[in-house]
């Protein structure tokens, strides 16, 4: 009796379709021209650590001078990064325009104001006058940059679903950061406005990001999917 043969199964092939994911530049040319706007994210981490330590000083009775030191450190680092990026803007404006036109790096531009807002939040009980000035500048800039990024996502035909990454959450997160110190420096309605805008855009953006990072089509992009079949 002839034994039926079972067809050999093959793992699904990886799609070779081209992706619109944009790779980083090669770093040729003057170093200042390649100073990335993502450096402002380091300030976000330092200021966030300062906030966490200040809270730990209240709950766990740890030395509060560490949190204060982290605030001043984050302020100094922010000033240094800001000066470096302003120098880039003056000496290499084309490089800055390139970042503003980049579908991935554009999402990191609001870290300029998010870092300022977090520094202001960390310093609201250490240096209230300085923190309030930083907050007002940061809040105004955050609204302007968020509108700019949203406008670019909607109106630029070169931005497609293939460019969607979790980094697109950054401008929306910045809107939710504003009320952290906003309740101390402005009317409650101002904080509610920023919080409402952030939440309103968060929900549809979550669906867009999850859809853009889906592997159901067999196409994966860096930073979105780790499934073995991709």
Structure, explained:
The structure is a single chain. This protein is mainly α. The protein has one domain (32-212): Glycosyltransferase (Alpha/alpha barrel), CATH 1.50.10.150. The protein contains seven helices and no strands. The protein has helices at residues 40-59, 65-91, 93-101, 111-122, 128-155, 170-185, 188-212. Helix 5 (128-155) packs antiparallel against helix 6. The model is unreliable at 12-23 (pLDDT under 50).
The end-to-end span amounts to 41 Å
Q: How much strand?
A: under 5%
Helix- and strand-based class?
Answer: mainly alpha
The largest β sheet comes out as:
none
Task: Write the topology of this structure.
Elements: H1 40-59, H2 65-91, H3 93-101, H4 111-122, H5 128-155, H6 170-185, H7 188-212
Helix pairs in contact: 1-2, 1-4, 2-3, 2-4, 4-5, 4-6, 5-6, 6-7
Quick summary of this structure?
The chain is mainly alpha-helical. It has helices at residues 40-59, 65-91, 93-101, 111-122, 128-155, 170-185, 188-212. It has a single domain (32-212), classed as Glycosyltransferase (Alpha/alpha barrel).
Question: What attributes characterize this protein structure?
Answer:
60% helix; Glycosyltransferase; single chain; 230 residues
């Amino acid at each position: 009796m002839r034994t039926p043969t079972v067809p050999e199964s093959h793992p699904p092939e990886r799609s070779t379709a081209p992706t619109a994911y944009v790779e980083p530049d090669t770093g040729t040319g003057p170093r200042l021209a390649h100073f990335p706007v993502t450096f402002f994210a380091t300030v976000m981490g330092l200021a966030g650590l300062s906030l966490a330590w200040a809270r730990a000083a209240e709950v766990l009775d740890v030395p509060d001078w560490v949190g204060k030191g982290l605030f001043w450190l984050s302020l100094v680092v922010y000033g240094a990064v800001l000066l470096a990026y302003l120098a880039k803007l003056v000496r290499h404006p084309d490089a800055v325009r390139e970042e503003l036109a980049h579908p991935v790096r554009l999402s990191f531009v609001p870290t300029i104001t998010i870092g300022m807002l977090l520094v202001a939040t960390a310093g609201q009980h250490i240096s209230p006058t300085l923190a309030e000035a930083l907050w007002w500048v940061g809040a105004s800039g955050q609204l302007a940059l968020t509108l700019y990024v949203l406008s670019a996502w909607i109106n630029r035909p070169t931005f497609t679903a293939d460019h969607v990454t979790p980094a697109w959450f950054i401008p929306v997160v910045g809107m939710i950061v504003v009320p952290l110190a906003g309740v101390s420096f402005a009317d409650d309605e101002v904080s509610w406005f920023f919080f409402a805008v952030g939440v309103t855009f968060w929900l549809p953006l979550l669906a867009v990001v999850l859809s853009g990072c889906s592997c159901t089509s067999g196409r994966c992009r860096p930073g979105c999917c780790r499934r073995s079949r991709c």
